[in-house]
Amino acid sequence: MKVVFHHSSDDAEMHARVVNNVANLLADETVDVEAVAVVVNGGGLGLLVGGTDHRELIESLQERNVLFKQCENTLARSDWEETDLLDGVEIVSSGVGELARLQSEGYAYIKP
Amino acid sequence: MKVVFHHSSDDAEMHARVVNNVANLLADETVDVEAVAVVVNGGGLGLLVGGTDHRELIESLQERNVLFKQCENTLARSDWEETDLLDGVEIVSSGVGELARLQSEGYAYIKP
Amino acid sequence: MKVVFHHSSDDAEMHARVVNNVANLLADETVDVEAVAVVVNGGGLGLLVGGTDHRELIESLQERNVLFKQCENTLARSDWEETDLLDGVEIVSSGVGELARLQSEGYAYIKP
Fold first, then answer.
1. B3 contact residues in C (CB cutoff 8 A)
2. Name one Pfam family in it (chains A, B, C) (predicted).
3. Distance from B104 to chain A by nearest Cα, in Å?
4. Is the Cβ of A99 closer than 8 Å to some Cβ of chain C?
5. What confidence score (pLDDT) does residue A7 get?
6. Given this model, what pLDDT does residue A76 score?
7. Mutate to test the interface with B, among C96, C99, C103, C110 (most CBs of B within 10 A)
8. CATH numbers and ranges of domains, chain C
9. DSSP code of residue B10
10. Is A4 on the interface with B (CB under 8 A)?
C-alpha cells in the first residue's frame, strides 16, 4: 500500500499528530506499506524547519524511506529559506499538485 | 459506491458533523451506496464511547450497515477501555492503516 | 489529472486558502489538470454567497472551468437562499455524495 499524508496546519499538536500517524502506520503489522510520503503546505511548514520539535522522529522516518515534501509556494511566501529545511526534504512545485499526482499513482490520502 | 469517513477531532461540533454527514450520504437518493465505514482516531474517540451525545443516531446507522472502527493506538493512550465503546464498534490495529486499506479497496475518503 | 477540493470550514482564512489552493494547482506547470471541482458543505457555504471576499478569484477560476458545487442540505439549513449563491454555482443533493461520486470517477481528494 502507498499512503500520502497531507499536513497544512501550524498547530503544534497537529505537527506531533502527523509524525505520530506516520510512525503508527509503519508500526502496523497488518498493513503492507510500500511507500509513504508527507506533503506539507500552509502552516505545516513549521514541522520541517530546523527549529522543529520533531527532528529526531522525522530523521528516523526518513531512514525508513518516508519522503517529506514541502510546497514551494508556501516556502516562497514564508520567512524561511530552502536552507532552513531539514536535510532530505524535497521541494515540490505545489503541494496540491503533488497530492493529486501521488493519488493518481495509487496513493491513499490521509489528512491527520 | 464505498465511502470511508475519517474522524479525528475532539470538538463536539465535529462529532455531530460526522454522524450527520453519514446520515446525509445514506439519505442521498442520487448515490448508490454499497458500503460505509467511519474510522476514528485521535480526539474522535469521544464519539464512540458510552457518554456520547450521538448513541441513538450511531445505533441507527449501524442498523443500516455503517461500520464504526476505532484505532487501537488511540484507545490504548486514552483513559477509556474497550468496554467503554458502544456495542458493535470494531477495534482496528491502527486508524491510518485501516484508512489506507479501505482506500486500496476502492473506498472514497471524506474528512468531515 | 482530476482533483476535487473539499471545503467545510467557516473560517475566513480557510475560505482564502481553498481558492488559493485551486489557483496554485492551476498555476503548477508540472501538473496536467483535466478537471477541478470544489465541493462545499457545512461552514464552507460562506465562500460561495454574494458577500464573499473572493468573488473575483472565484469568477476567474470558473472561467478556467473550475466547478463550484454547493451541498443542498447545508443550504437548506442556512439563512441563505439559492439566489444568494454566486452565478454558476451548482447545487448538489449532498456534498458527501458528490465527493464520493467524483472520487469514484478518478478525482483525487484534497482537504485544504
1. 96, 100
2. DsrE
3. 7
4. yes
5. 98
6. 97
7. C96
8. 2-110 (3.40.1260.10)
9. -
10. no
For residue C81, what pLDDT is reported?
96
Dist CA B58 CA B54 (whole Å): 6
Which residues make beta-bridge pairs with B3?
Answer: B36, B108
- C111 falls in which pLDDT band (50, 70, 90)? very high
- At A54-100, the pLDDT tens digits run 999 999 999 999 999 999 999 999 999 999 999 999 999 999 999 99
**What type of residue is A6?**
H
Tens-place pLDDT, residues B47-65 = 999 999 999 999 999 999 9
Contact C1 A101 (CB under 8 A): yes
Nearest partner of A93 among A75, A71, A76, judged by Cα: A71
Q: How far is C93 from chain B (nearest CA, A)?
A: 7
**Consecutive H or E run containing C39:** strand C35-40
- What b/e string do you get for A62-91 counting C-beta neighbours within 10 Å, with b at 16 or more? eeeebbbbbbbbbbeebebeeeebbeebee
CA distance C20 to C56: 12
| Residue indicated by cell numbers 458533523 | B17
